[in-house]
Amino acid sequence: MTVNMTKGQAISLQKSDGGTLTAVRMGLGWQAAPRRGLFGSRTREIDLDASAVLFADKQPVDVVFFRHLVSDDGSVKHTGDNLVGGAGSGGDDEAILVDLQRVPVHIDQIVFTVNSFTGQTFQEVRHAFCRIVDETNGQELARYTLDGGGQYTAQIMAKVHRAGSGWQMTALGNPANGRTFQDLMPSILPHL
Amino acid sequence: MTAELVRGQNHTLPQTRLEIRVSAGSPVVAGATLGDENGTVRGVEWIAHPGAHRLPGLEVSRQAAAGHRLAVDLEALPDEVHRVTVLLALPTGVGGPTRFGATAAPFVAVTGLDGTEIATFTLTGLDAESAVSALELYRRQGAWKVRAVGQGYAAGLAEMLADQGLAGAAELAASIQEAVARSLARSVAPPPPRTPEGDRVRHASGPSDPHPETAPQPQPTAHPPTVHQPTAPQSATHPPTAPQPQVPAHPSAVPQPAAPAHPPTGTGPGTPTAPAAPTAGGPINYAHPRRQHAAPPPPPPAAPPAEPGQAPQPVAGDATGWSMDERLYNQIWGMFEDLARAAAAYRSAVDFAESRMGQELDRSLSDPRNRIGGTGDRAREEARAKRDELIARAREVLDRDLAQLAAEAAVVEPALPAAYAGWDNPVWHAHRIPMELPMALRIGDLHLPERTDLRIPLLVRLPLERGIWVDSGRTASEAAAHMDTDRLRRLAMETAVLHAARLLAVYPPGEFSVHVIDPAGSAAGSLAPLVDAGVLAGPPAAGPGGVASVLAHLTRRVDLVQMAVRAGAADALPPDLDTGEQLLVVNDFPHGFDDRAVTQLRYLADEGPSVGVHLLMVADREDASAYGPVLDPLWRSLLRITPVADNHLADPWVGHAWTYEPPATPPGSRVLEQVLAAVTAARRAAGH
């Protein structure tokens, strides 16, 4: 069952049968800008980027984004940059896979962010969403709709953090502005 | 389930957003034409080509490349379009091959956006054609299908476009070729389509990126030997606002982490069955001419399902690949990466624990309340305990990973074929000279200080892509510094002989010759096994005369083969020319070398690998210091290894310094002599 999450809501990342999750995927999708008929090459493409920042005790240790697709320890993988978006029909255009079992012991939080690299605000982007999926069975755990958002170009989506022996996810949904995750660092820190 | 199409066969497409991947032996131009319900191309605006690379629903790349990814959104095409023809053409006027017969058979795959192959097609049997319609996507009763076409045109692009009913085909073809030539002139030579990662991480390299802007060079170059991230293509449109995340400076990188070019051009299904002349340009086709690979390979051994809560039992060959060789190769690269990443996780946790303790100690020292009484001591005690606890947990995870990898290594090592096996593996005692070249050769072992007995075979692809330099310098490594010069040089030459013997033993008889330059005759002892077995092309060349004659011989060969390749006339080679691969072992460089010989050697290092002439240098860089920086490019172009264990190689993912251990025969073993005798016997049996 999919949870449509609201800001600040926390869910425990557990399978429906109560077992703990071992792998999750953060998927991001949006609709590509409509093609211009004549001079189609000048379509103003929308490029959203998903990033994940790995924190140990509030210090960033590693980051996974379009220029560094796999964290050094191999636990977090980005499936590759999508520069234009998709059909807007709910499929993931970018995805970040997290193998929770292999996350190094000192990493206690992973923050997911979305940036508009080409500068459009979320008001202009259609059918944008972000979701968390149980990678082992493809079941959607939580979904988050981005469009209809305001005049901002980035969002700090969610964080996955250690809770006891398992992991918990908190929806953050905080608007911010920036081109890449680096611009967002000051806005991320208060959420740790 | 991938459909492997043969010419004329069609297949229903399950989705409308697709990627068409093309890989070819040399750079090709990729384009597409749109046709209406009668198959007519209504005008130039219905053609996507490098000069007009984007149409609604369709994008091709703007330049010629050996690998292409065309993005197709069939739903976005105009309604009148009923057919999309994907075409390939060789660029003209840029010095490459002029006919598809001179390159490896192009391979096209229709994939989903996540990279899963829907249908593939190898365009075999092309000869004088320089343009070809590869695939057709067409509407049939509201659904889209793909058909393998493979129709070639000897008169090139113009003929092909004219065949599709386009007026002004010749002018358009000329303008396309001109656009390609312009873009080739300002781009670096496209690297071979090769991904530096094993199949385990293939999905990490952005298969869902449908943007063809990145298509011409979908993989990072395999050279130079500095930092190469096995990450995805970096988008040309992203300005470098974000610096590379902390990648440590590499001492030098493990040079050829080349996983098999995917899709395989040489061993895959539908490999061209016509034996390509070995020098006909492009990569040499080592596929056995009469052996069919069309049958799907037997399923790889899969690890049996794990007991709940326990790691699965490792199995040798538990990776993807068309043959056991390829699976083991991919498995070894997968183990290499997993070990690198497991160690990275551990080291990062330890660093963090140490730095956190440092901060906590500083804080406790600067707090005036802690100066008296036991509070300060307690705080320090706690900080240390926290560090120890975290490191212990990290170590526990590392030990779990290491144990799993060690168990995997324990089943993989005994299963390795001779080319991947160490000299101590019994497989060498029963070794028979193969009829087909293996994928790769083991040139040593790698390990990390976290667990020195967990050895990863260091495999290099065959045919060699770079020369090898066995560094006999005493400054080469710590272990070397404790050795006297003579002993080190002898050891270096013995290592080189072992490498040469391995190469001889894994090449089919008569396809590999070894030449030796030993100007002062100082390596006679080390070379004895090769000389005694009679496997060398001639006696080791001594003195300046010998050096000059061997170099002249090999230079002539490189020159002739290059000319023949450029002209596309492999038959014109003189009959006395040995077209097999050549290895030149050079001892004592630059002793006995004059300026002319040094120039020739550099020529061989630069031009040789592409036409099958390889260098194996045994040298101390100090000896050649008189040449100054002139020789730096030569040293850089070679893969540097050492005759003693040394931690100078870096992995391509994280950049750890790995300890390289050269191959060695077990003490007292006669395996080297046995193997060389088998080489001689196989040559005799084959009539060489």
UniProtKB/TrEMBL annotation, chain A:
Pfam families membership: TerD
Protein name: TerD family protein
Domain TerD, chain residue ranges per copy: 1-179
Organism: Streptomyces microflavus (Streptomyces lipmanii)
UniProt superkingdom: Bacteria
TrEMBL record, chain B:
Biased composition (Pro residues): 213-223, 295-307
Bilayer-crossing regions: none
InterPro entries xref list: P-loop_NTPase (IPR027417), Stress/Tellurium_Resist (IPR051324), TerD (IPR003325)
Region (Disordered): 184-320, 361-384
Pfam family, one: TerD
Biased composition annotated in UniProt, kind: Low complexity: 224-234, 270-283, 308-317
Positions with biased composition (Basic and acidic residues): 361-370
Domain TerD: 68-162
Entry similarity comment: Belongs to the CAPAB/TerDEXZ family.
Name of this protein: Export associated protein
Organism taxonomic ancestry: Bacteria, Bacillati, Actinomycetota, Actinomycetes, Kitasatosporales
